[in-house]
Each structure stands twice: as structure tokens, then as C-alpha cells.
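# step 3/5: fold
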Amino acid sequence: MDLQLAHDIISICNEETGGATVEDCAEQLGITGARLADVFDTFEELVRSEKLMRIAGDRYISAKQPQEITGIYKGYTPTFGFVLSQDLTEDVYIAEQNRHTAMNNDKVTVRILHSGDGRHKQEGEIVSIVERANKTLVGTFQLEKHSAFVTPDDERIREDIYVPLDKTGGARSSARVLVKITKWPEEGRKAEGEVTEVLGYDGDKDLDIKVIMARHGLPFDFPEDVKKEAERIDTTVTLEEGRRDYRDRQLITIDSEDAKDLDDAIDVVRLPNGHFRLGVYIADVSYYVRPGSAIDQEAYKRGTNVYLVDRVIPMLPTVLSNGICSLNANEDRYSMTCVMEIDEEGKVLKADIGPAVIRVKRRCNYVEIRKALLEGIVPDDLQPFMPMLHELRALSTVLKNMRLRRGAIDFDFPEYKVILDPEGVPLRLEKRERTIAEQIVEESMLIANETVACYLRDSENPSVYRIHELPEPERLEMMRTVLSSFNLPMPDTESVKPADFQKLLEMTKGTDEAAVVQTIALRSMQQARYSTTNAGHFGLASECYTHFTSP
């Protein structure tokens, strides 16, 4: 091997240049003709001697010292796994004997042992654990004479967890449990843990749901300090100075039949000038959840309610979520309100936004509202509210037409609900129709969210906006490629508007292509997100939007 040529090649294939191909080296060294064979031979020898390491495609980087890469370990079978790293395009193969104490999903440092053209492009050995991933595990408990073990459900974690007999949490053999790791595994020694939750036994009614909750770290209960703080909450509602008194208004809530937390109420009145006065009333959670309190810190940790097939895991204690912060009928409640005057074109002419005391007059559900408006089936106690419901229906049509005129996208993906038997066993899926009842609520919430967002923006109050940015050109090109076979007009990449997407949806509505077009259109867009900087909402064709109606 030409040592000078080898030195030159190694110098070119350095980290600063991001590596190089054999062709790059020949070009930079000015080598052509018959001498190219020497370049290729030297390059191959440097690879075999592991002085060059393959990083992507035909690019190599000099590896004078064994290279160490940080990544995530993924166990696949009892004999091997891989380390995935953003620094490499090829995953690093890890033989079982080179895994050491790494567990599935651990963040690790791996030393590259081999780089070449064999079955595995790169093989390595885990040399250190950067961060452990599995602080808790779900598994099956087994009690023996002098010890106890938990076998993880995750087959990619192959070692049992040793549990001292005084840390079993009262579990019996065959129990499904949540175990907390207290000592990480070492060479020749299993991980050690303690049972923190006995989830149940085979045949228990809600075992599967509890297992899902445990796997995803969803809480089963509130901490004691949160419970005690919730018990001390004063649930007396009085008309304080600065609050509007809207208790005489004909407010209703419209939710699903099984909803337990009622967040929003609405009412509408037709004004003498023909305009609509729409009120949207949201539970004033901030009155009860004070910054820095135990409830506030726990809510921050949870972030949101979690909706499972048979239950809701609330962000707030039940005394709040289903009690004083739920807009139950015939009970006084503190509320944040947005009362708007809206003209016949759907434009908000003025709005009054602020705290109030309200009293919902009737709880309604989607099914009965649909039947009342479309089929004329009206329960006696709903009859007094029918004039307002007809006005709400008229207003929702006005608001929807306004949004469509400005180009908002109206996706109509089907939603399904899982129907369970009394034992919690799934029976069937029921399609949830999007009817006039859902439209009334949806349009009311959308216009309230826009109105409050514009108020916060114009008053220069700090706020969190719900933004939906322009689609990325690469995704639009993907959409163009997929839909080219449908002979449909494609939006211009440089000046795309939400109306372009809505036009596609309208052209294919009711056709065999509708589902494909909707899916591709949705995937071509960016995900909506929260931001303290207002960037508008592309899908709604709205210049300003927030989630006021999500207390």
C-alpha cells in the first residue's frame, strides 16, 4: 500500500468535510488514468484495516480511533439488537454478547467494532449507558420460596426483575403488576425493583385497560396533597364585583349522552337589527386552580385529560372536573364568556369578553338535538328551547358559509366509538355521524376561539395561539405525484391557499377517490401546534386562532 497515498486519502476523509467517496479522493488528488487503480486498491485496504469507516452510501470517514456513537438501543431477538443514531444512516448491529446491561430503549454509547460490506454494515459494542428508559415496567409476578421475580410483558426486555420479598406489594403469583426499577442491572446481576401497583389477575374486568395505563405511565389516582387541597375548595358561587350576571339567559349545554365534564354552554338571541347575539360560556377553571398550587402542578404534569375506551383520566380532581367546573344544569357556575354580535354574513361586529356567573337551564345531547331539528321529535322539557335552537341552526349555517367563502378546509373523516358490554368486552364499532347538532357546537366554538384570539392579539396580551403553518413544498410535491393519476387540478406550490385544498375535496366528494384525496391532502399539511407567536391557521383560513374553549 502506498503510504503517502493512504495518508492523503485519510486526510481528505475527515470529520470536517463530512467524509468522502473514493471518487472524491481521486478528484481532489488530481489522479486520473492508470493511477486510479492505486487509489481504489489503497481505499479498499484502508477500509479492511478499519482506518476508514462507512457512514452513508459510498461515503467514508477516517477512524484513526475506535469511533463511539450515542444512540437508542432496540432489542429485537434473544440474540441481537440494533443501536439507532441520528449521526449514522446505517443502524449498528449489536450481538447479544456485546449488549452487556443495556435494556430496550436505553440511550447508550456504542463503539463501532466493524465497518464493511458484510451482512451488517456496522457492528458495535455498547460501552456505557447514557440514560435508562424503563424506570417502570409492566409484567407478570412470580413468587418463589426465597425470592420473587417479575417477567416483563415487553419481550424485548429479556431479563426478569428481581423483587425482594418485602417489596412485593402484596402481589400473588400470576398477578400482572407495575414494578419500579430500584437498582439497574450489572454484569452478572439482574435488575432489582419493587411492586408499586397490583393491576389484577387474568379474568379481571378492566385488567387490559389498567395494563395500558401502566405501560404509558398514566396515573391511577391523584397524589395525597392534591386530594387534600381539592377537599378544601370552597364550592360556593357568589356574584363578585367585576363579574357579569348571565344567570337569566337561556343557556344550554350540548354534549354526548355519556359526557361527565361539561365545559361549554351556548345561547343565541336574534337582535332587532337582524344580527345574532351569540354567547359562548366556558368553565372558569382558573378561579379554582391557582398558580403554584398542588393542583396546578399536577395539572401541568398531566397536561390534558386522557380519553380511553371506557373512562377518562382527568387532568383535575373530580371535585373540579365533574363538579364545580362542570356546567351542570340548574347550578350557578363561574364562567369566562365571549358574547358576540354577528351579522348575516358571519362577521363579528363586537364582542364582550370577561368573567361571569352563569346558570345552565338544560343539559342537551347530540342525539335529541338532531331528532328535534331534523325529525320534529321534541321532548316536552326541550320545547321552550326550540326557538333558540332554530336560531342556532341558522347561525351555524351562516358561520360555516363564511368560513368556506374565505377558503377554510372542511375535512369529513369518519369517527367511530367502541361499544362495550357490561364486562368491558368490545362488542362493535359504531360510526359517529357529524350532524347538525355537532355543527351547531363546532361553529360556535370556532368563532369564539377566533374572536378571543384576535382580542388577545390586538390588546397585546401574552397568549398561546393554536397555529397551523403553510404546507412544506416537499409535501406538496409528494401530493402532486400521488394525485397526478386522478387528473385533478393541483395547487401551486409557491402560492398555495387552503381554498385549493377545499376545491379538491369538493370535486371528489361522493366519488371513489374521496377517501384517498382527503388522506393525501391531510398528510401534505403540517401538524397544528401551540405557539406564543401568532402565525395564523392555514386549515381554518384564519389569521388568528386559539383554544379559548378548552379550559
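# step 4/5: annotate
The chain has four domains: 3-62, 68-131, 136-215, 233-445.
# step 5/5: archive (pending)
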